[in-house]
Amino acid sequence: MLALLFSVVLLGAAANATRLLDNNLAYRSPFKNDATLAHDTSAIQARSLVRRQVEDATKFDDQHYPTFYGADFGNSPFIWSGGLNFTHSVASGDPFDTSVLLWTRAVPISPSGSSQLPDQSVPVCVFWKITASPELKGSAVSSGQAFTSYDVDFTVKVEATHLKPDSLYYFQFGDCSNPDTVSPIGKTRTLPHPDTAADQVNNGNPLTFAVFSCSQYQAGK
Ligand SMILES: *[C@@H]1O[C@H](CO)[C@@H](O)[C@H](O)[C@H]1NC(C)=O
């Protein structure tokens, strides 16, 4: 009984340890029936931990990492804190009536004036939020945090949920460790509820669709 309880607790801890990696849908296989294209987030998490353990901890104030799974990563050696560049702005797609996928790319940058490559062995953490206000004013309708890494070319793909059907939304990503560093604001919209009469969609105004696709099956993209 105790052993069972222990393994349940361990499983719980293990699931939690990859939560921020798993929040990034870019690690998942794009095909439900082909798991081989998914990234092993447990292995990526373990890689970061190994890296942490060989670091000299004395130079960090925060010896016990209480904030690692919290909201404040400012002092965490587990994540990249040397600056990010949202090199490819933002994108969104695959809308449903109450959700939409949000995308960006958050690349670690070298210290200014340095030709040194940034340390890529720790994950990059981004936060995101989506609101109905073009200036992102007021509280977010949906928000979260996710990790990315070189495994997925520093791309981030998250699902914003709890949205209203047939509605416009605005979203933005930012750097967890330097919250002043933010991406451009993206504009997106949800689909109408499936029962909406065709002449009621988009308040009866015309609606234009653009379809874009880019895939490389063997690379899982
Ligand atoms: C950020 O990325 C853009 C696009 O690749 C590039 O032009 C710019 O120089 C980069 N900025 C920094 C600070 O690395």
Would you kindly provide a written description of the structure presented here, covering whatever features stand out?
It comes from Tetrapyrgos nigripes. Residues 88-190 form the Phospholipase D N-terminal domain. Keywords: Signal. Residues 1-17 form the signal peptide. This is Phospholipase D N-terminal domain-containing protein. The protein has three helices and ten strands. The chain has 221 residues and is α+β, with helices and mostly antiparallel strands. The protein has a single domain (1-54, 68-221), classed as Purple acid phosphatase-like, N-terminal (Immunoglobulin-like). The strands form three sheets. Strands 5, 6, 8, 9 and 10 form a five-stranded antiparallel β-sheet that branches. Strands 2-3-7 form a three-stranded antiparallel β-sheet, with no helix packed on it. Strand 2 (90-93) and strand 3 form a beta hairpin. It starts with a helix and ends in a 32-residue tail after the last strand.
Q: Spell out the CATH superfamily.
A: Purple acid phosphatase-like, N-terminal
Q: How many DSSP-defined strands?
A: 10
The chain-level structural class is: alpha+beta
Q: Figure out the total of helices.
A: 3
What is this entry, summarized?
Keywords: Signal. The chain has 3 helices and 10 strands.
Topology:
Layout: H1 2-17, H2 19-22, H3 41-54, E1 84-85, E2 90-93, E3 100-105, E4 107-108, E5 124-131, E6 142-148, E7 155-160, E8 168-175, E9 178-182, E10 186-189
Antiparallel strand pairs: 1-4, 2-3, 3-7, 5-6, 5-8, 8-9, 8-10
The structure holds 2-acetamido-2-deoxy-beta-D-glucopyranose.
